[in-house]
Amino acid sequence: MNAPTGHNSSFTWRSILWGRQLLQKGLVWKIGTGVNVPLSAPKLIPNIQRPILLHPLDQSQAFISSFINHDSTWNVHKLQYFFPSHQVEHILKIPIDPTSTDSLIWGFHSSGIITVKYAYHLACSLTSVDVPSSSNPNPYLHWWKILWSLPVPPKIKHFIWRAFHHILPCAFNLFLKRSLPHPNCSICGHNTESVTHALIGCSRAKSIWKSSRFKQFYLAYHRSDIKDFLIQALHNISKQDFPIFITFICAAQCKHQDDNLHSEATRIPPASQQQLPPSLSPETPSLFVDAAIDHQNGITGTGFIFKHGFQTVLASHYHQLPGAVSPIFAEGQALLQSLKWCIDSQFSPQIVFSDCLNLVSKVNGAWQDNSALSGLVSRIRLLFSNFPGASLQFLPRQFNMDAHVLAREALGSREVS
């Protein structure tokens, strides 16, 4: 990671160093105990280049561990004393995984795992990474001359320029900018809606291309990256049809965005179509769990209710935690706290209900990766071993409102537990 470029280095070596530069841009810290992470470490706080200390701090204390409580939560009062409020807000969004050592993970995917695909999309979206060049400083010079001279509206040329450089507002690029919680395509469910996927690979794009006059070209080159797709079109589509081809891509993307918005709007089914809660015996010991987040104050509220069946409340509790992490992590924290509460109170639930389907699927499956969420899920599974025969089930929010109200009340609690 510290090897120099050297004098008159080869194209291969410069390419390797470019890959290192890209890797450094994609790595972030996963916080365990924090003892190995100095405050001067790069990429420590999301969206913050370098932390600013409001007061002097002894060098022996200049580590993240100095701001973590014994129960692996953030020490909010200490953070507020040493850091500006806007930095504290970002720090409190960082999850802590006490089961893991401090480590660098890939920050541009929720799994923390780097793949060639995600690294490639990151490279295409960044303009600050200097791509190593061969002897030809601009191999696309002819392509750009043709594009800018086409008899099409300027907005279409600009659209193609952005597509060529992979900087259209697709789900993956919005995910990189933290404007979306995931990079998935909401139309076909593909796990990455890159520019190439939106324009070529999506099922909606396929149906449009196959019904157009460019069907044969599409079938021949649909596995290409969008950049290569456009270059091949320049050489394989007639001069008369090329302006139509360019305009067609822009129109197809507009159709894709319209369908995307429609999919987002209809993603949550109406109440009449939602899954009803499973039938329970009136005597079945049941635990209902939910979480709520207050990003402004940097806290998470958790609420849990122990019942017989759906109606008879035996006990309830709410708990406030420092930190305002992602919704699924907050739901996981609520589930973990509720199981600890049951152990301390000697409750033995047979069914545990959460309205976070994604969390339920992860806990019940064999899922694991490099993320802090994976460590939290492992701790939840371990606590479930204290309740032999108990199951974790999904319950739609409308049937979990009592726990939801408790979680909201926890946000108003004056003291952080």
UniProtKB/TrEMBL annotation:
Residues 138-209 form the Reverse transcriptase zinc-binding domain. This is Reverse transcriptase zinc-binding domain-containing protein. InterPro entries: RNase_H-like_dom_plant, RNase_H-like_EbsB-rel, RNaseH-like_sf, RNaseH_domain, RNaseH_sf, RVT-Znf. One of its GO terms (molecular function) is RNA-DNA hybrid ribonuclease activity. Pfam families: RVT_3, zf-RVT. It comes from the Eukaryota. Residues 289-410 form the RNase H type-1 domain. SUPFAM superfamilies: Ribonuclease H-like.
